[in-house]
TrEMBL record:
EC id: 1.11.1.6
CDD domains for the chain: catalase_clade_3
Similarity comment: family membership: Belongs to the catalase family.
Role description: Decomposes hydrogen peroxide into water and oxygen; serves to protect cells from the toxic effects of hydrogen peroxide.
Taxonomic lineage of the native organism: Bacteria, Pseudomonadati, Pseudomonadota, Alphaproteobacteria, Hyphomicrobiales
Gene name in the database record: katA
Cofactor dependence: heme
Every Catalase core domain range: 12-396
Protein name in UniProt: catalase
PROSITE patterns: CATALASE_1, CATALASE_3
GO molecular function, one term: catalase activity
Amino acid sequence: MPQQDDRNSRLTTTAGAPVADNQNSLTAGDRGPVLLQDWQLIEKLAHQNRERIPERVVHAKGWGAHGMLRITGDISHLTCAKVLQQGTETPMIARFSTVAGEMGAADHERDVRGFALKFYTEEGNWDLVGNNTPVFFVRDPIKFPDFIHTQKRHPRTNLRSATAMWDFWSLSPESLHQVTILFSDRGLPVSPMHMNGYGSHTYSLWNDDGDRVWIKFHFKTSQGHRHYTNAEAEEVMGRTREGYQEALFGAIEEGNYPRWIVQVQVMTEAQAGELPFNPFDVTKVWPHADFPPIEIGVLELNRNPDNYFAEIEQLAFSPSNVVRGIGHSPDRMLQGRIFAYADAHRYRLGTHYEALPVNRPRCPMHHYHRDGAMRFFGDMPNADAYYEPNSFGGPVEDRSFAEPPLQIEGPASRFDHRDGNDDFSQPRALFLLFDDGQKARLFANIAAAMSGVPDAIAERQIELFRRVHPDFGAGVCAALDALDPQF
Ligand code: NDP
């Protein structure tokens, strides 16, 4: 395709043949009809029909840029991951997104934001697929499709349904923590640059001695937290639906590169056994007082993509992508996502999605996966080595990359994940951090979002807020009353 600085060069078909006329179809006489023989016309129409791929079911609307991770702290005693060694710089790419809206949704909607990072490390791609909040609505992946249905359109009305959202949340007390964050100021950042990122899940680090610790990753915005109120966001959306793209793309074009300070929280395996709550429960944070954040580096975004579709829409993250020295944890939601993310991309992009330029590792890769749609990359140097084991010098495993064994115990069963779980203390700790203004906005945001919800569902949710803190329940009641005195 001709580039901006190349516009006088010759137009060709996709097969490279120069095009003699890009203005007129091939017709029988000057009044038509068009001849089927006009393969240039057919090629153009056929390509246009195929310009869309399935959008992501969740996180469809996104914005992204290239950048660099620089490690400044020394955690070599915790991990052998090359990407996390002091002084290492690793090229990376980030994609931010809203969760519920479709690809054309307005940017400034109240929603959780995706904060997904792909690091092109020397030992393979490492993807950290987080959010701008440290917790999530559900802790068991079997609830995820139900939860997402409540965020999407009603099957009959084709409208978003506040009733469905609050019905699900009021029946799922584990959602309280995330709901409190969503309706607080941080639920509506002014741009991707003005929010934190959190790996959210518990991951692990391991070193050459085979010692493992549990770990949480945090990315603290250097631009400062900035948020819109609902009223401000409505005003902005009246002017532009693309405010995040404009802000992020514009800042990077102008050389104002956004940065985040990278922190980790570390928990030993022994500490995990002594905690009063499950450290692998993604509806919970690790209190800073017990697990102080340690600064280990800085993330900077400094290059806009040249082609949004190729580099951001085709960008494919999966928590399954970890590298030596970084591992997973028993977090159930993480395990669900290890399957679901890669599966989404196989459906959305195709079997060989990881060979697309933006997803391709920057290090050599040698695997035995073979054919399938869009197999556009060549074979390994020795074509006879197309299975394993073989006698023809094909690639072999390297046991030095093995993760230390993880002890697991207990009977396989469907344990009730709500049984004995304290879903109230951590939202309470957050609620008590808010000043009066933040609390008033929290109450008003919740009341506005509950508009039209049947009383029984609203009452059930308010009872959950009361259990977080009596002032929380009372504040939401008063805000609902102010909107509708009949409530
Ligand atoms: P701390 O007081 O040590 O930490 C409070 C944290 O809350 C800070 O990380 C701060 O993030 C964040 N915070 C401050 N204001 C808001 C807000 N309006 N909305 C969302 N987050 C906010 O206490 P704890 O570690 O004991 O945590 C108390 C509560 O804070 C938790 O229950 C949780 O809800 C929330 N929180 C905790 C985090 C953690 O990893 N421990 C992370 C984020 C939130 P920042 O430093 O970026 O301003």
